[in-house]
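Whether sequence alone determines local backbone shape is best considered at the level of individual chains. Part of our work consisted of pairing the sequence of a single chain with a tokenised description of its backbone. This step matters because it turns folding into a mapping between discrete strings. For completeness, the protein is quoted in full, as a sequence line and a line of structure tokens:

_____
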Amino acid sequence: MKELIQQCDELIAELKKFSKEIIDLGKSISDDRFEIFEKSIGFQLPIDFKYILTKYNGISLLGTEVLALDKLQSSSLSEIYTFEHHEAGNPMPLKFLPFSPDGYGNHYCLDLSNLKDGLCPVVFWQHDTFMKAMTKQRFAI
């Protein structure tokens, strides 16, 4: 855990090297908004993601954005989560948390169903690729 936090701090130090003209680092979070958000979506967030967004609630670097719990540049995590899971024509699986849009309707997402040791994989959701439910069929003998 200590090593993970150190890696997060090193990443933050690298981000701070960019000119304020090209990077926007959100304000820190010191309340229970993460816990409220986790309860609302039914999943725990990864340690590194929470740690970095607690320090800087949203990051935008030359238009590449890590969404904030609150609006920083475009929309918030909560707004995008709600839209992509309940309003989009091709709904995203609930286990995916879209955190970084690519500008074309697709998102980098955290696969929250695979949270292990406080970490989870990042996946890419392409909005125009339709997912079909896999079903088992029973055959009569």
Summary: Residues 2-125 form a domain with the SMI1/KNR4-like fold (CATH 3.40.1580.10).
